[in-house]
Amino acid sequence: MDQNHFYQQNRERLLEKMPNNSVAIIASGEEQIRNRDVEFPFRAESDFFYLTGFTEPDSVLFLVKQEATQSVLFLRPKDPEQETWQGRRLGVDAACNALLTDQAWSIDELEEQAVVLLENIENIYLSFSHLNQWSELLNSWITSLKQKVRKGISAPSNISDLDKILHEMRVCKTPEEIERMRHAAQISVKGHLAAMRAVLECDYEYQVQAALEAEFVRQGSPRVAFSSIVASAENACILHYTENRSEINKQALLLVDAGAEWAGYAGDITTTFPASGHFSEAQALLYSLVLKAQRAAIEVIKPNVSYDQAHQASVKVLTAGLVELGILQGDTDELIKAEAYKPFFMHGTGHWLGMDVHDVGEYKINQQWRDFKPGMVVTVEPGMYISAEHESVDGKWHNIGIRIEDDILVTKSGHEVLTKGLPRTVKEIEAWMASCGD
């Protein structure tokens, strides 16, 4: 399936789920100012991209379901002067053929044409997270339509949250999406291998980040899926550390949490490895424990197994390991009930992955953890963080932060590790890093 038919199919699937006499409204977003007259690099909103494949700002998609269905795109018109300065635009005339939409209008005509499209519509669907952005326009459109009541025209009477329908569609990936995610995952793998290779010759975290992200670009990724984390020693005990400016402690571990984006889909990997190429005894023991917990969680993943079971599998292994290492004392089951592990493992074991690195979709249905289904993609990322603030813990464990993360596809019979290809055990990592110096 070519790309444009893929997005067209997504629109058709959404329209099927909408009741008759409904309109869904989805925007690409606007460019945001970074400083003065410099914009942040633009990325279209994921929902909009999922339905169009279009990446220009200031665009709005209307999906209309009445006796027939139609997709109507509003976008920036061609403007030779603006395009000289800011880059080419698709333009209205080319949009229908290029994107397989039914109609295309200039974004300047949105207010006028929206009133026409909303005639005799009962339900408007839009994301409630963007409701404030639409409130003034919606009020104007509905007011205009109410003034036409004597002509037999009715105005919308319901506004519903599109996320309930669209985000649930995005939870289980289609075969086309899975192929994109495999590719994003493998680009991410190559970036992490480049980071492991680079650290042996780097003095600062940002130098490793440069090697990592350069490999992403070299492999065809247009951008990182999220801000890269490159954290040496105690910095690894900060979960979302993104400064990446510290000098690398060559006797410590380096934690790298980073992923490439490709064709709109995210990879997300965390590797933790010794900056010197060799683990200390304490580092190796804690690392092996986290890896054991990760493998226990991955092993659980298959259809009809609860999402939370993977987390509980990692918690059980980590807590038992902390007792064995003398970091916690007591009965493992009682410690789990008391959440005694939380000072050292304070986050969940994973999250949905897709177009967004923390992808959309409910984790519970009717207050119950939902079961895995084929096509879901989830990260598995247990961790262990023992900062020097834990004064009651033996100092040999201090300032060790470890997280190990892979991307897992739920298949019909079990699971597939999309991020395969990384050295993961202590021996594998030391051997691989030793080979980099040969």
What characteristics describe this protein?
438 residues, alpha+beta, 6-stranded mixed β-sheet, 3-stranded antiparallel β-sheet, 13 helices, 21 strands
Describe the structure.
The protein has 438 residues and is α+β, with helices and mostly antiparallel strands. Helices cover 37% and strands 19% of the residues. The protein is built from 13 helices and 21 strands. The strands form seven sheets. The protein has a six-stranded mixed beta sheet with strand order 6-5-4-1-7-8, with helices on both faces. A hairpin with a 2-residue loop joins β12 and β13. α1 packs across α2 and α8 packs across α9. The longest helix is centred in the middle third of the chain and has 24 residues. The chain is elongated. It starts with a helix and ends with a helix. The mean pLDDT is 96.
**What is the rounded Rg?**
25 Å
Major sheet attributes: 6 strands, mixed
Treating each run of at least 4 consecutive H or I residues as one helix, how many helices? 13
Overall pLDDT level: 96
Question: Going across the major beta sheet, what is the strand order?
Answer: 6-5-4-1-7-8
Spans of at least 5 consecutive residues with low confidence? none
Number of beta strands:
21
User: Could you tell me how far the N terminus lies from the C terminus, measured between alpha carbons in angstroms?
Assistant: 44 Å
